[in-house]
Amino acid sequence: SSLSFFLKKNSLFRLFTNKKKEVFVMSSLIREQIIPQPAGKHIVKVLARVLEQVVTRNDQIPINHEHMTIFHAYRPPGIGIQPYLERIFKYVDCSNECFVMALIYMDRIIQRNSNFYISSLNIHRLLISSVMIAAKFFDDKYYNNGFYARVGGVPLLELNALEIEYLFMINFSLQIEPKEYEQYRKQLESHSDQMGIKPEEM
After folding, report:
1. Which of 16, 15, 145, 147 is nearest to 91 (CA)?
2. What is the band of 32 on the pLDDT scale with cuts at 50, 70, 90?
3. pLDDT over 90 at 116, yes or no
4. What is the mean pLDDT of residues 155-164?
5. How many Å apart are CA 166 and CA 147, to the nearest integer?
6. At a CB cut-off of 8 Å and minimum separation 6, what does 130 contact?
7. C-alpha closest to that of 142 among 101, 94, 98, 100
8. In this structure, are residues 115 and 64 in contact, taking their beta carbons and an 8 Å threshold?
9. Residue 53, SS3?
10. Is 44 strand, coil or helix?
11. Counting Cβ atoms within 10 Å, is residue 17 exposed (0-12), middle (13-18) or buried (19+)?
12. In this structure, what are the phi and psi dihedrals at residue 64, rounded to the nearest 5 degrees?
């Protein structure tokens, strides 16, 4: 599997490939200690590719309507994951770290909610909510929810509800250890090498 690097023995990054889900694992961030790393469009492209692979596999799981949440749409949106992330990157103007943190937060939702997994029905709402929450927590400058709603293509009232639900689903756990953040960033960097994605392509 192209995601096999998450299967390393004794790694913090465990890929669950049972019939229910695939997820990435990371724990809690002392905001002041994070060292910024160049990322930009490169991280967006790698992150999109990783999520596309997860979604492709998880979409094979039969839908249990009892486990659908407010993050689930009735049908997948018309925009793909990479164009959607690129749109967020272009307009939201958040720090590069927010995209890594967004993936960490999606991790936590899955780890704390056993019946929840990422699919084409929920990935877009998860992404805009994750990036927004990461920007609010980490960045000195961020926008109001109305702006994120316009960028993400969701109604403001819906995004407000998504934010509240998201925070409860992760039990308001927004802190991430710097060492773990850096390990996760390096894993994404390693994954970009495996996929042949080079920063100069961006």
Report:
1. 147
2. very low
3. yes
4. 98
5. 18
6. 101, 102, 103, 105, 106, 166
7. 94
8. yes
9. helix
10. helix
11. middle
12. -105, 105
pTM listed for this prediction = 0.79
Residue in the structure block whose two tokens are 């692979």: 53
Report residue 112 as tokens: 């704390």
CA 66 to the chain's CA centroid: 23
Beta carbons of 176 and 101 less than 8 angstroms apart = yes
Tokens of residue 107, six digits:
């991790």
Copy the structure tokens of residue 88: 């967020």
Distance CA 13, CA 99 (A): 17
Helix, strand, coil shares of the chain, percent, nearest 5, are: 55, 0, 45
pLDDT of residue 57: 92
